[in-house]
Specification:
mainly alpha; about 65% helix
C-alpha cells in the first residue's frame, strides 16, 4: 500500500467538502430563515439539519463554476426586484382591465447554455416574476416551457422569450463559467 493513498483520499475529501461548502452554508441560512431566528441555537440546529440532509440524501456533487461576479450579481438582484414589482403591477392591471381578457400561452424557450444549475436558476427566476410560471423542462434539449399571461400575438411571445434569455444572461454573468459566458456572448445554440 502506498503512503500517498491516505493523503490522496484526504485531499479529495477536502476538495469535495470545499465545493459543497456554499450549499452547506445555504442550507444553514435557509434553516435560520425558516425559523425566523438568527441565533446561535438556530445556527447549531441548522448545522445539524444540514449534516443530516447532506449525509442521508446523497445527491451527486454540483460542480460550481468557481467564478462569482459581484457587480453582475448586484445588477441581477436590482433588475429582479424591479421585474417583480413591474410584473405585479402588470398582472394587477390585467385583472382589473375588464375591456379585454389577458391572453395566455405556453411557450418553449431554448436556453443558450447547457448547465443544469443555470437552467434551474433561470426557471426559478422566471417563476418568481408574476405573469409567468415554469410548467415543464426538457433537460436534454435545454428547453424551458412557461405558462405566461398577457400574450396576444407573436410579438408578445418573442418578447417573453427575450426576457428569459435576458435572465439567463444575467445569471451567467453573475455566476457562470467562462465557457458559459462565451456561449451567451456568441448566442450559442
Amino acid at each position: 500500500m502506498s503512503p500517498d493513498l491516505p493523503q490522496g483520499r484526504l485531499r479529495r475529501a477536502f476538495a469535495t467538502a470545499w465545493r459543497q461548502l456554499p450549499f452547506f452554508v445555504w442550507l444553514i441560512a435557509l434553516w435560520m430563515l425558516l425559523w425566523g431566528q438568527f441565533t446561535w441555537l438556530a445556527f447549531l440546529t441548522g448545522l445539524v439539519a444540514a449534516l443530516v440532509v447532506t449525509r442521508v440524501f446523497r445527491l451527486p456533487p454540483v460542480e460550481l463554476s468557481g467564478r462569482v461576479n459581484l457587480w453582475w450579481g448586484l445588477v441581477f438582484v436590482v433588475e429582479f426586484m424591479a421585474a417583480v414589482v413591474q410584473g405585479s403591477l402588470t398582472v394587477a392591471w390585467q385583472v382589473l382591465d375588464f375591456r379585454r381578457q389577458p391572453g395566455a400561452a405556453i411557450i418553449g424557450v431554448r436556453l443558450r447554455t447547457d448547465d443544469d444549475l443555470i437552467m434551474a436558476h433561470v426557471g426559478v427566476t422566471c417563476s418568481l416574476i408574476p405573469g409567468s410560471l415554469i410548467v415543464d423542462t426538457d433537460r436534454d434539449r435545454r428547453i424551458l416551457y412557461l405558462h405566461v399571461i398577457g400574450v396576444r400575438d407573436d410579438r408578445d411571445v418573442e418578447k417573453q422569450r427575450a426576457s428569459v434569455h435576458h435572465w439567463e444572461e444575467r445569471i451567467v454573468r453573475a455566476v457562470g463559467s467562462r465557457a458559459q459566458l462565451q456561449a451567451i456572448k456568441g448566442g450559442g445554440r
